[in-house]
Structures are given as structure tokens and as C-alpha cells.
Predict the structure.
Amino acid sequence: MKSQANSTPLAIVHYDEIALKGGNRADFERQLVRNLNDMLKARGLPLRARNARGRIFIEAREAGAALPDDWRERLRAALSLFPGVAYFGFTEVAEKSMEALEALAPVFVERLLGHTFRVSARRVDKRFPLNSTEIERAFAAAVFRAAPDGALKAAMRGFRRALQVEVLEHAIIAYVKEPGIGGLAVGSSGRAVPLLSAGFDSPVATFLMMKRGVKAHPVHFHSMPLVSDEALEAAKDLARRLSDFQGRLTLALVPVLPIQEHIREHAPERLRIVLLRRSFMRLACAYAAEIGALALITGESVGQVASQTLENMRAIDAAATLPVLRPLCGMNKREIIDLARKIGTERTSARPCDDTCSLFLPRRPETKAKLEAVLAAEEKLDLAALEEEALGGRALAHFIFGEEREKREN
């Protein structure tokens, strides 16, 4: 059975940080509305988002259009982790009178059962005869009257559900607030290149920077055909999931086996990992220059493993010509895995597969690399041609909101 939509708001989206952007606020708002409309279109929902006085309404694209039965569930899943969305709710709309608003009270009883709640009102139209406090008291009383005795409990602090009422120019809307993740709209803070592995850390780091408005153009370094394609496929699945937060996302797949073999044959064993990661930095910076990205993103956490020390990070970062963003630096593994579970990357990252950096892994890798020793070892290598060949041999996988749209070789 199809539900019928009209031109009134079906859902409402609020942001928080964007409201603090002063003169640039309109640009941030437009970016979030664009992202939402791209998401709605890609997911096949006949809805549109539009900006309206510090809030964003989601409504039917065409008045009277039929909506899928599961549109609320699909929209809830998307909005709950959509960068830039502080909270959202599914609206009930009444004519602009207190009697019409109170008639909506029974609709909210089931949503509030088992939870403490608070009613908050915002009177956009100051001509409405009741002020915000009077609206809150009257509507809360109507909700209690509609519920079984003792079934609901109000709370001014520590409440579990927020029931919001907004008096607009032509109608009143009411909704229960549902939390988003906040942050900024992807694309409002420029571009960066994440070094995306098949593990837990780098996709979480990428997500956190997306939440700060950064548009990600990830690169994955692989060692095929010496290893299986499991890590490569896992990286593609992670990119597919990350596209749910960003929209259009391109994953560059760069073959680095010749570089690894050269380092194994001509460099000190203890420095292999540091030298390889310096090569990754140069490759990522070269790719960033091609696409106009201004930074790199990596998933290191200080002291998480023996190679992720400040000394090694210094030696590796010295090869980069762009800033290296490490949003996980202060997090431990449990915190990272918990966030991976929340954003839906944990299962993919937990797959057993060969990691590129584990190939030719030294028995005792250097944990406190001295930059002078690293540079001296690197001078004896001939990596420039191999790195140029690796970047030229990359493949590109394109995703948009969970769908792989295209794959081509350069």
C-alpha cells in the first residue's frame, strides 16, 4: 500500500555548526542542501530538500506523488549518519491553531512511551496568539490526555525524547527529534586524499574528516598479483560504504609491488616499512596535485603499533609536500572499532586478508627511525621511475551512495 504525500514538509533537518559560520553561512547551507538532494535522488526517493529559515525541509518532489512504504526507514538510515545533520524528525502538520495542534497529540504517544520527554516550542510567526511557553504547556497537556494514565513522564532535564513544535507562517509542525552526527556538509572544506587500507583505522579516519566537511578522494595501494585480491576488494567495499556519507567518490587503486620488491632488495631491512610509507606519501601527494586536493588523511594512532611512533611519523611525513591529517592520533583501538561499528565499516575491515605493508615485513622493524638515516638509505634507491609507473598504472573505481557506477583503467 502506498502512502500519499502533499506539499507540506514530511521531514525536517537541523544543523548546528553551520549556523556559526557568519558571512559564509549561506555557502555551507547550500552545500548541505545539494548533498541531501543528491542522496535523495541516488536512493530513488521522490523527495527534495529545500532551505527555509535556518532549517531544511524534506518534502515530496511533486505534490500528491506516491511514496514507497519504507521511505521513513530509508530516510532515517541515511540522515542518522549524514555529515552536517545535527538532528532531524518526521513531521506532523496542522493548521495554524492550538486546537489543530492538540489534535495531533495522539500521534506522538506511541513514539514517547517508555521514555521521559520534553516539549519545546518555537514561534516563528509572532502573530500566533500563544507564546512559546504557553504552546509547550498546552501541547504537553494534550499529549498526557491522549496517553494511558501513568504511561508518560515529562522531564525538563535528562529527558530521552524531545518533542518539538514550530509555528510557521502557514502551519504548525510537530516532530520528535532524532540525533544526527553533526559536523559540516561534505565538500564545504575542500578535498583531501585518504590512504585507504583494508583495515579498521583509515576508513574511520576518512569518515571523521568527511564529518569536518572534507571531500575524500581515497587511494589504495595494492600488491597484486603476488597477493590475493581480497584486500583490494575490501578497500572497494569500504569505499562503497564511505560513499553513503559523501555521495560521489572515486577510489584510486595503485599497484606498488615493483616498489616493494625494489625496497626489499636494496634497502636495510629495518627501514623497509618507513621507506615504503614515504613512497606512499609521494604517490598520494602526486595524485592530490592532479585532482586539486590540499591534504592527505591517514589512520595512524600514536603508539598503537610499534611502527606508529612520533619518530617514524616524522620520518614518513618529511616525504609529503602536503599536510597530513591524522584524526585518530589520540584514539585507542577499541574506540576506533566502536566507531567503525557505528558507521558500518567494521565487518569489512575485520575480513582476513593480506595487508600491503605486511608483505616483506622485516622481523624487527625500526620504531625510532632517524630522518638522516632514512634519507641516506633512500638516496641509494631508484624509486622515481617506479613511482611514476605505479601512478600511471592506477585503476579508478567510482561510487555514488553505495553503488559502483564505473571502473576503468588509465
Remarks:
- The longest strand covers residues 116-123.
- The CA atoms of residues 48 and 107 lie 24 Å apart.
- Residues 272-291 form the longest helix (20 residues).
- The mean pLDDT is 91.
